Amino acid sequence: MKQPKYLFNAGRMSRKDNTLKFTPVDEAGVEEQPRYLPIEQVGDLYVFGSLDANSALYNFLGQEGIAVHFFNYYEHYTGSFMPREYLLAGKMQVDQTKHYMTAKKRIEIARRFVEGAANNILRVLKYYNNRDKVKDLTEAIVSIERLLVSVPTTTDVPMLMGIEGNIRQTYYGCFDAIVGQTFCMDGRSKRPPQNELNALISFGNMLCYTACLSTIYHTQLNPTISFLHEPGARRYSLALDLSEVFKPILVDRLIFRMINKRQLQPSDFRSEVGGCVLKDAARKRFVQGFDEQLKETIKHRALGRSVSYRHLMKLECYKLQKHLLGVEEYRPFKAWW
Amino acid sequence: MFPTATLVNYLHLCHRKLWLHANHIRMEHTSEAVAEGKQLHEHAYPQRTERYREITLDGSVIDFYDPYNKVVHEMKKSDKMEHSHIAQVQFYLYLLQKNGVEGATGLIEYPKLRQTQQVSLTEEDVPMVEGWIRVIEQLVDSEKCPGRIAKSKCRSCSYFDFCYVEELPE
Ligand code: SF4
């Protein structure tokens, strides 16, 4: 079973037969005991520390279909090494492009992504609204529901993006009510995130984006042709579209849970000129929390068996593919539990 | 495009499967079934490799062909004998005939069942195979993806999740 591997330490990675050899290097530049990772167990690699590697390694990773995602010192995602596509399908590519090129077809899909995001946001808010410690969120819920109703009336993507922005703003306005005793949201700030909560959201969103990207890679979808986000917004903008649907459930809920269980506290952060960052141990905990979340399973009603959250992402790709091929209309995943 | 034996097999299983496969919409190669099939070919009868040739005819690969006895051997890991397996081997025999080999026969082996199945291609069978080829060509050329078949037959198909995932109303 392939699993993502997270490299928190700086070090050197090389190929040793059919194994990856990782030699951590400490701050003084001293090599530690190497670790060996059999290639068939490696999903994606997440690199948080500095990584020393040569082209032979990347050739090997490319040949094995393993992506590498890089994060800098400030926990900002800086990019990915993506292996060459191996599941190419001309018809799929043409149909995906057609849906992007035709305004009417494009907006139909874009709306679905916003709808999916809004529904899952509502699911999260309704869950916390029932908690006695949390301030009443009913007002926000009602206004998001009202915004959601207006989604089908949008005629172009900028208009839709405007509604999506309003939904998100209302949603982020609730964060203080949910975790305000520990952290203060004080508005959403990115590049750099100005406080702890913003740093967590940004970091979590990037983890979600890379997970979506990897999932798309293992399908015939082209990750650079998107519908809600403008292609080029980021290199792999379809991963941005897809992650909209999953972020509330996978990232935000995890943040709330970890804060409320005191697994993340103000002392876990460091303020830097470049923004607010998680300290090493807390970063590890958060990444592990996210990883466990992806492995968690739920019973899928249409398939009649348990599937992991990671597999839910794959299923989302299948639904999108079916839409593009004209098999059946795409309806976004909606948390039902 | 001239049909491959895989498509002939799928024609007798599910038209949607045929269409998806022909359009290169295929599932990831991580599937254990694929690995198992490969292993079966590599290890089941190693001593026989001397006698057999792998031959490619019109884009279809026959893994085990015995040129002296003119016998096509096909191994199936499945635990059920399927009509689609016979069709696939008949198609091989048709290809052989088309390429000048008269009177070849086929033998399907089911190691899990410890059973074999004889296959032949009679004169009357030829128009039938040609009919398959025409239907496959039509299906592949079609813009539209064919519908699903009965769910009970889909459980072991690699497209199961693709075909059956949907959002149910609350
Ligand atoms: S799951 Fe069923 S309908 Fe879908 S391709 Fe397979 S056999 Fe055909």
TrEMBL record, chain A:
Keyword Metal-binding listed: yes
Enzyme class: hydrolase
Organism expressing this protein natively: Spirosoma pollinicola
Keywords from the named record: Antiviral defense, DNA-binding, Endonuclease, Hydrolase, Magnesium, Manganese, Metal-binding, Nuclease
Cofactor: Mg(2+); Mn(2+)
Assembly and interaction partners: Homodimer, forms a heterotetramer with a Cas2 homodimer.
Homology family: Belongs to the CRISPR-associated endonuclease Cas1 family.
Domain of life per record: Bacteria
Pfam families assigned: Cas_Cas1
Annotated gene: cas1
UniProt keyword Hydrolase present: yes
Protein name: CRISPR-associated endonuclease Cas1
E.C. numbers: 3.1.-.-
TrEMBL record, chain B:
Gene3D superfamilies: 3.90.320.10
InterPro entries linked: CRISPR-assoc_prot_Cas4 (IPR013343), Dna2/Cas4_DUF83 (IPR022765), PDDEXK-like_dom_sf (IPR011604)
GO biological process, one term: defense response to virus
Keywords assigned: Antiviral defense, Exonuclease, Hydrolase, Iron, Iron-sulfur, Manganese, Metal-binding, Nuclease
Cofactor: Mg(2+); Mn(2+); iron-sulfur cluster
Cofactor, how bound (note): Mg(2+) or Mn(2+) required for ssDNA cleavage activity.
Annotated ranges, domain DUF83: 5-164
EC number(s) stated in the UniProt entry for this protein: 3.1.12.1
Enzyme class: hydrolase
Lineage: superkingdom: Bacteria
One Pfam family this sequence matches: Cas_Cas4
GO molecular function: exonuclease activity; iron-sulfur cluster binding; metal ion binding
Family (UniProt): Belongs to the CRISPR-associated exonuclease Cas4 family.
Function summary: CRISPR (clustered regularly interspaced short palindromic repeat) is an adaptive immune system that provides protection against mobile genetic elements (viruses, transposable elements and conjugative plasmids). CRISPR clusters contain sequences complementary to antecedent mobile elements and target invading nucleic acids. CRISPR clusters are transcribed and processed into CRISPR RNA (crRNA).
Protein name per Swiss-Prot or TrEMBL: CRISPR-associated exonuclease Cas4
Source organism (scientific name): Spirosoma pollinicola
